[in-house]
Amino acid sequence: MPFSLKERRKFAVFAGLVFFHLILISLQVPKGDQPTYFERAFFTVFTPVQHGVVSFFQGLGRFWKSYFYLRHVQRQNQDMRDEIFLLRQENLAFRNMLLKFRSETEIQERLATISRSILVCSVIGFNSSDIYKSIVLNRGSLNGLKKDMVVLDKKGRLVGRVIDPVSLKEARVQLITDKESGVGVLSERQKVVGILSGYAEGKCLMKYVLRTNKGIEEGEEVSTSGFEGIYPAEVLVGKIISVTEDATLFKRIIVEPYFDFAELDEVAVFAVDLRE
Amino acid sequence: MKSLFEVVVAVILAVVLETILGKISAPLLFLFNAFSWVVLYFSLTKHEVFGAVLGTVCGLLQDSFSLGIFGVAGLTKTLLGFTAGFVSRKINIIPVTRNFVFILIVSFIELALWKFLVFFLFGERLALGSGLVLLQPLTTAFVVSLAFQIARRKRGESL
User: Fold this and answer.
1) Parent domain of B142
2) Per the CB < 8 Å rule, is A134 touching B66?
3) A48 contacts chain B (CB < 8 A)
4) Which of B23, B114, B136 is the mutation pick for testing A, counting most A CBs within 10 A?
5) Residue in A31, A125, A174 closest to B22 by CB
6) What's the confidence (pLDDT) of residue A114?
7) Average pLDDT of B21-33?
């Protein structure tokens, strides 16, 4: 049965929309290029909605806790938790610097800079297609966030890095569990070097460790090597949960990251280059 | 004008719901896809062109909250909106069971197509959320079918 003119018009609209999507997808080839202006625009326009929703519910929660539920104790507890959070980050940064600097004055100066540079951010959104890929933070370029800044969890363990697009008040973070991510890592005992990237279901794969290498075992911790030039050295990343071999030249090493999705309500962003 | 207002409210509610679900527990995002609910509901009530355009908007919104190829969810949701709207005009999907099964099938096809594009064309490993994502068509069918029947009751329509 032939289609009427009205139906043909409908198909034309549909074909136009499909064509638009195909063009949009094609524009992003090769993968890994900068986000398009269109994507940036969508991110900038709609993340404030997420920001607003989270702020509203956080406000409601704070109101309830502050005024009705153990008002004073709650506040004290929160202050102490914030302090512990900042101290952990400071401690981590301090340990990193000790590896690099000899002079105590220099360490003190650097530590003062770093303390001022820790930004505590709330997570306002997860990747709705695949939660292991990225998160959205409630701070952006107005707060000093820039691409490639390192993001750690409450206990100072690696979460990921800030990536484009960074809007005025929101920023996106690529998690280390994303397949497209890459982190230079070292094993704890024999300092075996590899590249960590996302694998599946929140696990990571430590790549490019030759199968002839006998210096790596299950249960070992891995930390950043700093070789890729983005992440500082010696930040804890996770634990090796399986080491197997297949037909390739390399071992298949699965790493479970230390950061926990359930506790990923707040993160610390280092607004300073820890490698310097 | 009223329809447009309803759509805008529904899309904003979907964004709000996705945000709340992510804050409650991130794996819930595997189970519920509020953008698909909006696209399917309006495809069934306002048919294919409306469904396709809304699919484009909701899909691109979902893409903007995700890291990866921008436009994949847009493409699959456009196909979902158009197909659901077109088929629902050709067959009677008003009875509850038929309505539920129809939505279950189209949302399963959408999920399969989306995963197919991500896995085969872009070579990305599938994130199944420990199997939770496989239940997504079921939750979508339940929610949309329920909303559809409630809306019909409100309008006083019979089967």
Assistant:
1) 2-155
2) yes
3) no
4) B23
5) A125
6) 66
7) 86
Interface of A with B in 181-200 (CB under 8 A): 198-200
**Chunked in runs of 10, what are the mean pLDDT values of chain A (276 residues)?**
78 90 77 65 77 81 72 78 82 72 64 73 82 88 88 89 88 90 90 90 89 86 88 90 88 92 84 60
Assigned fold of A37-177+261-270: Thrombin, subunit H (2.40.10)
| Total of domains in chain B | 1
- Confidence class for position B26, pLDDT limits 50, 70, 90: confident
Compare CB distances from A133 to B33, B68, B122 and report the shortest one's residue.
Answer: B68
Task: Encode pLDDT of B39-74 as tens digits.
Answer: 999 999 988 899 999 999 999 988 888 777 788 889
Burial (Cβ within 10 Å: 0-12, 13-18, ≥19) of residue B132? middle
Q: Which of B47, B62, B70, B122 to mutate to test the interface with A (most CBs of A within 10 A)?
A: B70
Residues in chain A: 276
Length of chain B: 159
Q: Do the beta carbons of residue B23 and residue A261 sit within 8 Å?
A: no
Q: Tell me the nearest-neighbour CA distance from A224 into chain B, angstroms.
A: 23
Q: For all residues of chain B together, what is the average pLDDT?
A: 87
List the CATH code of the domain at A183-257: 2.40.10.350
Residues of chain A with CATH 2.40.10.340: 37-177+261-270
The ipTM is: 0.80
d(CA A200, CA A220): 20
**Residue A52 burial (10 A CB sphere; 0-12, 13-18, 19+):** middle
Outline where chain A has alpha helix (H). Answer: 5-26, 37-68, 71-98, 104-117
The residues near B12 (Cβ < 8 Å, ≥ 6 apart) are A49
Long-range CB contacts for residues A31-38, cutoff 8 Å, separation at least 24 = A31/A180, A31/B69, A31/B122, A32/A180, A34/A164, A35/A164, A35/A165, A35/B70, A36/B70, A38/B70
Buried b (16+ CB within 10 A) or exposed e, A198-212: bbbebbbbbbebeee
How far apart CA B4 and CA A207 sit, in angstroms, is 50
A266: nearest CA in chain B?
B23
pTM for this predicted structure: 0.75
